Amino acid sequence: MIIRLFILVLLISLNSPSPIFSQQKTTIYLFPGQGSDERIFDSLKFAEKFEIVHIEYPIPMKGCSMREFARVVSHQIDTTQKYILIGVSLGGMIISEMNENLNPEQSIIISSAKSRKELPLRYRFQRLIPIYKLVPPKLMLGGAKFLQPIIEPDRNTNKVTFKNMLSAKDPVYMKRTVSMIINWDREKVQEALIHIHGTKDHTIPIRNVKADHIIENGSHMMTLTQHASIQKILSSYLGQ
Question: 16 lies in a domain?
Fold first, then answer.
């Protein structure tokens, strides 16, 4: 009698939606850009089958390389479960480094670069003549605030959000991440990366970029300002 009761309970538990037997959600890790945070993804929608985790960047150690920084940030990723990486700008560069050692289900970068060859000439020039080293951190952050609306006028459609995101950045963080980008030494492109880029990206001009998906009139800020086009592409990959 006891054995029959045990078997009945076991059969009921196997057919019930108990968390023990439910399918584990795939985690999507979202990597913001250098001058943004999780708000850059506010306009994007993800299906309930995904768990969303926003990556936060610490202040890099002085002289930290992109590869070393990616290794530090990778500690925020649970590699024991299925996961997907999506990154904007600096976030995409970090993912490019991570893909060397990690094995995500998918890696999608937006308004970014897969290697130093896709960076604009001004970054590569400063690697040879590092003028940026003479600029104090606070002045560098102030310069970013001043230049952002000029270089990327599209951000004015969400002016308050972009201004607040940039204002929240630590000046030391800004200078060290600038150094990290300028001195990025990645030559090899990871084939598994899915690259989405805009034709009006003035921060990382498309003329240097080989993208899988091109957004007409898409700016460097298009994840927030032109989210409908981004959403459609992401949904096709995520099956939502």
Answer: no
Phi, psi (5° rounding) for residue 98? Answer: -60, -35
The model carries a pTM of 0.87
Pick from 212, 203, 216: nearest CA to 234: 212
Q: Is residue 12 part of a domain?
A: no
User: What residue type is 35 in one-letter code?
Assistant: G
Domain of residue 109 covers 23-238
At 9, the pLDDT band (50, 70, 90 cuts) reads: very low
- Rounded to whole angstroms, the Cα distance separating 195 from 110 reads 6
Residue 11 lies in a domain: no
Closest CA to 171 of 148, 143, 199, 190: 143
CB 31 within 8 A of CB 85: yes
Within-domain flag for 5: no
Query: Does residue 53 come out as left (phi exceeding 0), alpha (psi in the -120 to 50 range) or beta?
Result: beta
Phi, psi of 50 (to 5 degrees): -105, 145
Convert the pLDDT of each residue in 87-113 to its tens digit.
999 999 999 999 989 999 999 999 999
